[in-house]
Amino acid sequence: MLAIIAHHYVVNSTVANEFEYTNTTPQQYFLEVWGLWGKTAINSFILISGYFMCKMHLTLQRYLKLVVQVLFYGFIIMFIFALTGYESITIKSIIKKIFGPLNGINQGFTASFLCFYAFVPFYNKLIDKCTPKELGLLISGLLIVMSGCSCFLFAPTMNEPLWYMTMYFVAAYIRLYPSKFTKSFKLSAITLFAGVSIAIAINIGLIYLSNVTGNIIYSDFHQYLMMNSNMPLAFIIGLAAFLTFKNMPKFYNRTINFLAAGTFGVLLIHASSDTMRRWLWQDVCNVPEMLHTSMGTLIVQAMAVPIVIFTIGSLIDFLRRRYVERPLFNRFAPRFKTETT
């Protein structure tokens, strides 16, 4: 989630509109690399979901918790902005907020994730019916179509819910049919380090070529390789990150578990709407102006902002779970008391 916030620091702040590819500054080089990892983090997030959910039963109450959480933050934040005079509430904006989880499919993570997540029981039934070989062939075919054809043949095959389904199958295969490769911490860590290093090198190299040649096609291509979650490099890095932490020695940490419970809430809060993006990144953080500050100041703010947003968002979501979600579901869905979060 910290990587996703850092990604939003760059892509949602409009600072990228001021990037120059014929006279690139060190500050721009830093921001280009700093915001590079959002889609890889999305892949890791979906892999985590698939790794656990392939062995679990998705109930209606569990799914409704996500829907209620999305609507809760969407409306609360909209009303707060309306009360402060930052935006006005219209019938159109209310209707859009209600149907956002439907009309935003394949246009944003939240709606696409809710769409993908609704079909988890069917993914699990298919996984149960497949032999290891059949599931492996299914995953290979999906990766060729969704990632290979999209990257190398420029086929418009990318569809967020279907890509998340592909990641789900990958994680399920790793969980159900582990091998010495998927269980090796050393291999996954080396792959992660190599993938990140290659991504940074390609990113900086193509920007440099744009400056040297004056051909901005290089600037477009460097973003293409990492700015979609189905790109092979984004997939490999996301998978390697997931495997690296999965293969670490097991330990229990109350603080990490507490923060993890609010991760999705942090996403919903800081990326709830275009109004929030404008207020947070342009008015409060003033990220576009940071492109023209000293490198030291830029680095300090870029590193501090994700931590502050994550901390505040986690605390807000803890209060929501305790004083809104728990009483609501205890009242209307008593069976949910016994389910894990």
The share of residues in extended strands comes to under 5%
For the biggest sheet, the summary is: none
Instruction: Give helix and strand order, one letter per element, not per position.
Output: HHHHHHHHHHHHHHHHHH
Q: Helix count, per DSSP?
A: 18
- Total strand count, please? 0
Sum up the overall morphology in one term: globular
Helix content: over 70%
Q: What's the gyration radius in Å? A: 21 Å
How far apart lie the N and C ends? Answer: 18 Å
Q: What class do helices, strands and sheet pairing give?
A: mainly alpha
Q: Which quaternary structure do these chains form? A: single chain
Q: Please state the average pLDDT score.
A: 90
Unreliable residue stretches: 336-341
Brief overview:
With 341 residues, the chain is mostly helical.
What do these coordinates show?
By secondary structure, the chain is mainly α. 73% of the residues lie in helices and 0% in strands. The chain has helices spanning 2-11, 26-34, 38-53, 60-83, 91-98, 100-103, 109-118, 120-129, 132-152, 160-176, 185-213, 217-224, 232-246, 254-261, 263-270, 274-284, 287-290, 295-332.
List its salient traits:
single chain, 341 residues, mainly alpha, globular, disordered C terminus
Topology, pairings included?
Blueprint: H1 2-11, H2 26-34, H3 38-53, H4 60-83, H5 91-98, H6 100-103, H7 109-118, H8 120-129, H9 132-152, H10 160-176, H11 185-213, H12 217-224, H13 232-246, H14 254-261, H15 263-270, H16 274-284, H17 287-290, H18 295-332
